[in-house]
Amino acid sequence: MVPSAPLSSRVTELLEGLRAEYDALNQEASNMRLFKDEYEQRINSQISEIQAVQQNLYELERAHHKIRQQYEEEIMRLRRELEARGGPVATPSPFLQQPPQQQPHQVPLPPQHQQQVAMSQPHSAGMPHGPGMYSGMPPTSGPHGGPNGSGMPHGQPPMAGEPHPGAYMGPPGQYGPGGAVPVNPHGQPMTPQQQAAGIKDRKPVMTPSQGLPPPSHQQQQGGLPPMSQGLPGSSQMGNRQTPTQPPRSVAMVPARGVVTDNQLADMDLEMVPANMKREGADWFVIYNPKVPRLLNIENLFTLEHNSVVCCVKFSNDGKYLATGCNRVTQIWNVATGANECMLADKTATKDIDLYIRAVCFSPDGKYLVTGAEDKQIRVWDIQKRTIQHVLTGHDQDIYSLDFSPDGSTILSGSGDRTVRLWNLESGKEVCKFTIDDMGPRDAGVTSVAFSPNGKLVAASSLDKMIRLWEVSSGNLLERIDGHKDSVYAVAFSPDGQSLLSGSLDKTLRIWDLGRFGSSGRSSDRVTARSTLVGHKDFVLSVAYSPDGNWFVSGSKDRGVQFWDPRTSQTQCMLQGHKNSVISVALSPTQMYFATGSGDCRARIWSYETLPTPM
Hints:
The chain is an alpha+beta fold. It has helices at about 5-85, 115, 190-195, 215-220; strands at about 160, 235, 260, 275-280, 285, 295-305, 310-315, 320-325, 330-335, 340-345, 355-360, 365-370, 375-380, 385-390, 400-405, 410-415, 420-425, 430-435, 445-450, 455-460, 465-470, 475-480, 485-490, 500-505, 505-510, 525-535, 540-545, 550-555, 560-565, 570-575, 580-585, 590-595, 600-610.
């Protein structure tokens, strides 16, 4: 029999050996963990340093680009001035005339498009830091990052990672976001035909701004005593009253269900007959050769601002124009172009941008309502230049405002997917319409409007929809679906029978309201009368003329187009801005219209009917 003691001793030795080996491996693993943590810290530190270097390089590159752009523009301006005085012909600088760069199409955005699009990329050099609802628009945290918007972090409504339609994208170019394109002397992009033929119009691009006469004594008694008469910043291009538009004798063409394609933006200005175009110092109009020329358009005033102009709106008497930009709302005399007053909330936070994205006069002209990126609606007493009410309740940026026809109720739309009604006298919220039927996209509200009889409210949103509510009951009446991308603008026709919409799909649509129209026709549903194609980029703003004979659209393609709602044909295309046309408005009393743009300008124009069609 073998003794057991030696076996027990051997097992003990083996266990001790295993324990020692385990302890050694455990110690080694602990050391490896320490090494790993140390390496990770070093890697993270190096990544942070690299990111800081990249950011610094980006800032330096942006600053360099901005300075170079300013130098080149100043040099070009001086060359053109010299040419205008009889000197050598101005030749565009190579820096300002680079060949177009091919870039993937970027879908910008309204309010929560920012979560789908956000007006949240760093601002490009050479462009004002501004709202992002369109090229050159200021950013915002709202749905547009904004509908009217631009840099979206604090203020733009884009889709995830995408810039707002009005947002400035890429380095400043001569046309459109992200890319420099050769331009003609009007400051507008040259067509492919012009570039190929080397055509250069040798007219000077700009003329020195002329001082504006102060408003007359009678005008000062009209309700807005000027705070600063004759302020610099508006250039008078002409000053004349236009007569009331006479009836037009134009054959009516049935347009139901029609898709009209009017690509005036593709026409070569140099090849257009003289009677089908009109040119100013820094603007031009091309008329549609397929229809009789019925209008004449002139630039009256150019109103300079310090930042992107997000919105323009006439008073109901047509005497004044309100414009909204960063932190300031300004009121201008339409007859003289003079700055009547500047409204700014001195209590608002001063360390961030605060773009005024919507403005609206009360029907009696006593109040001006403004909506901003700080989610607040301010009701200004214009005479006293004080804030009457601050309306709070929205959770995101305010993108659109309207007054009820009787002036008692304020309508607001926000990126928080709500439309709200407020009592003007008390400043209290009286009703809230919520979009709770969201599909794959966020439904931030981009534009709102009262029907002419005040019974309906229309709202467009980022989810491609337009919704109709009944004011008295608060019921949702209709969801209008048809656009292929976010809808940025809506407007009722003056007779209340139809609704006009503009979309990021680059089209406009006219909708027959059927039984919801003011005449109460028996049609069961809202139907699309026609789809209007003509803009080359996002349609950002729409407005009807007071007589309903025309409607106007503004686009990210920098163009403004006049359309005939009866024929669904465009009458003409106006190019007069160097950035997106974010807002358009027509005077309720005169044949004037206004445009606001990402180029930090608002402009007042006249349109008059020709005695004889051309």
